[in-house]
Amino acid sequence: MRTLDSLPDLRGQRVLVRSDLNVPLDGERITDDGRVRASVPTIERLLGAGARVVVCAHLGRPQGAPDARYSLRPVAHRLGELLERPVGFCPETVGPQAAQAVDALGDGEVLVLENLRFNAGETAKDEQQRADFAQHLASLADAFVSDGFGVVHRKQASVYDVAALLPHAAGGLVAAEVAVMRQLTEDPARPYAVVLGGAKVSDKLGVIDNLIALADRLLIGGGMVFTFLKAQGYEVGRSLLEQDQVETVRGYLEKAQRSGVEIILPTDIVAATRFAADADHDVVSAQDIPSDRIGVDIGPESSHAFAASLGDAQTVFWNGPMGAFEMAPFAHGTDVIARVLRERTAEGALTVVGGGDSAAAVRQLGYADTDFAHISTGGGASLEFLEGKTLPGLDVLED
User: Fold this and answer.
1) What does 220-253 look like in DSSP terms, one character per residue?
2) pTM to 2 decimals?
3) What pLDDT, in 10s, does the model give residues 11-51?
4) pLDDT of 106
């Protein structure tokens, strides 16, 4: 994979950087700037080389048309604060205004273009429509740097097509993410534990199937655990359940047993009368959740068992919270996993938080990024890499 070192002298060159700035917003307030902070080192390196940096990114799902709710303007402002220098903002992505703004850049200056997804060509399934938009983007630059790991599993204009039109390289963030993912898949230090949570087991089927052959232990929590419990014949009350995946999960349990991989499921569950922070709730047996209750977290006994099973792990990959961490009464299980991973990190283990809700959870719970060996910026991309899939945005960087 081409890296920044493969690009020629960048002084005075217009470099289009595809960053991942898809941050959560409350109005115009960024509630988690982790992805913006992660984009800074590559941009700083390019600016230090005298490049004229043009940043492009998406935010939300604006359906191919301008939508003020998803403007990158507040993100550009935050990027300027982090870079400690002025950052220009152009209210269009391609067109005469964008071309003029790029032409006005001096060496070592940076500009953020408006949301890529305000243009239907960015995500178009039609290859010609996507290629046309990519041509407009490419006309703004002399070179392309792919630094948005969270989108490299998407065959989109700014991720895939532009790279085929310009001298290209992986930015430092993408290169670092790939290096970590390879550590998780090629020769991980053992014991190797994988912690999976989140809402749906269907989102994790591929990674479960692939990691059963690689990991030593799989710890299952979150909403997806109720499909596992159902597959064992237990009642799950009104908890989240994917009935159509019960047989598939049963097959995974059997495969793990044949392969000697330990699958660890909760023995107790925090069950609430409804999905709300102020709902009445109790700890119940995972084998007998009352019919009128919803599982919202793993129980204290399970939290202790999960912590114990991670105590000697030398490699840990974690994707998905253990419960409804957004509500304080149901964040305990997720907090326990984060605390143990922090301890394992301090003892030299490779601990990887797999982006998405997992990254949001540890930050909301007060943990620093440095408490873990790596926090991925790409939940979906991380999972697809671990599934063994070819990621278009990485594949194109090999050429």
Assistant:
1) E-STTHHHHHHHTT-B-TTS---GGGHHHHHHHH
2) 0.89
3) 999 999 999 999 999 999 999 898 999 999 999 999 999 99
4) 97
Rounded distance between C-alpha atoms, residue 145 and residue 68, angstroms:
27
User: Residue 165 carries which side chain, given as an amino acid letter?
Assistant: L
Q: Which residue type occupies 199?
A: A
Q: Cβ of 399: how many Cβ atoms within 10 Å?
A: 9
* CB neighbours of residue 368 within 10 Å: 10
Catalytic site residues?
Answer: 35, 200, 356, 380
CA atoms within 13 A on the CB side of 371: 16
What is the rounded distance in angstroms from the CA atom of residue 117 to the CA atom of residue 54? 16
At 39, is the secondary structure helix, strand, or coil?
Answer: helix
Closest C-alpha to 352, from 220, 212, 195, 202: 195
pLDDT digits (tens, 9 = 90+) for 217-255: 999 999 999 999 999 999 999 999 999 999 999 999 999
CA-to-CA separations, 358 to 190, 345, 362, in angstroms, rounded: 23, 16, 6
